[in-house]
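ok so I'm stuck.
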Amino acid sequence: MNPVQFKFDNVLALASQEEVYEATAAEVVRGALEGFNGTIMCYGQTGAGKTFTMSGGKQSFKQRGIIPRALGQLFAEVKAMPDREARVSVQYLEIYNEALYDLLDITTQPHEISIYESSKGQVTVSGLRTAVVASEAEALALLFEGETNRVIGEHQLNRESSRSHSIFTITLELKPVGDAGGDVLVSKLALVDLAGSERVSKTKSEGLVLREAGHINKSLSILEQVILGLGDKNRDHVPFRSSKLTHVLKNSLGGNCRTVLVANVWSDAAQTDETLSTCRFAQRMMRVTCEVSANVVQDSSARVRQLERQVADLQQELAMHDAMAMRGGISYSAYSDTQRAELRTRVLDFLMGNIEPLELHSLRHMKEILFACRVTWWRQEVEEVEAAAFLPHRPALGPCLAVAPAGLRRADGLGGAGVAPDAARPGSSTLQLHSSFSASLPVSTPKPASICGATALEDYKAGPGALKAQLLAENRTRLKTGRGRAKELALAVNAAKRELDGLKKREEQLKGQRVQQQGEGSQVLDAEEYDVLMRIKELKSSYKENYNELQVVKSEVDYTQGLVDQCNKELLLEFAQWYESTYGRP
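replied:
not stuck anymore, here's the structure
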């Protein structure tokens, strides 16, 4: 066999667990304390030592693997940060025969665990238990519990072979101590122990073990396709969703994540083929680009607590000033619906002249009064606008109003609206008023009978509302002109765009013919191609001018439409007030 060479960052032969950790994981863990995501993944042939590298041996403390050492480093570093408050949580996921299992909660069924991908491409696994740990001991206890629940099997190459992929995820949040607020660093560490690739001809697997090997090899094959896709910059699609493993690891392979692959190989010559396959996979992994950035978020809860205390202090200071000024019963908090209803009643009484001007107690009181005035004004406006609609929904009154103020009678003696007919009026003996009392009654000046609303509106436009009506008419004229101009420009822009598209196609055709006839480097244009290029240049200039003018005209049309609406509303409101003062409320 011809020699094959591979280039890697490091080759660890006969290395201790501590040396392996320092060379592969220590820097990634330190990056997590600075807000950088990280992934450490063990890949290789079954029996090559992946689980030993990741989890460690059970014989001694020195045989601890990457996961327990990473937990120890994290908590040691956090303890050395007195100005930072840390929150550490862990998850432990197993992928066995393309089904998801929670190694920290064996009661959770696979159908209760699902992979969710947000619109921004962030992948989360819902249904997994997330355990918050306060110490290294708690985290190790959960790790050992998960290792106990993991599926293992026996075959010729490994007496305790992992028959599943496992992902131990550590989420770290670091925020400033106290309520001062500040940036929060959030990072994730994905520690992945992949099931080993195997050749059935060597493992002699049968039955369930053979079925497990099929799922393992398939998922590892898809993982290799994903790595190939990530390493190829010209590739548009990467098949992350083709397997559960690659879908879960979507945010953990390259991109905004420091990714380290530990390739475990056999030194036995009989396993050369699998060793070469593992080395080729590792070399492809080196082509994956990582562009990491710290995950920094704002601690909103601390800022909220700080503002709440500031508001409480200011309210206390205001209460002290009110007490010194002998002002009681003043509230600076938001008004309730009942208080606002009462305030609107007082505002309405003030506007009607029934009470003296309202006394302002605070800025909050003044704002609530202004708000009540606005609500009252809008309600009054709605009523007046409805009244200005000439009440066509009252068929009993006919097409025109026939409302007469009290004391006025129709000439036919039948009475008008609000006036009883003569026959229904009581006789002189029914009600007798003392002469002195009658003399004290106020006598109001009768108002003229109401006229048809449409006629009244035209009279108002010709009289008191002439200026407003003229302004409305001018704005409507400008609006119509602007819309017409906008339509013309839009048609011109669209026509120029269509002609440009046709000319560009024709120019490409002529260029192709010229290249075919004269060669690639020819720059001599015939008359038709020259005319087409000049026309394209002319159309581009015209298109740009018309388009820019169209944007200006559209802005003018929008603004003029607002003026028309405003003038129309004011005209109707003023007409309603004039109608009421002239003919009385309908």
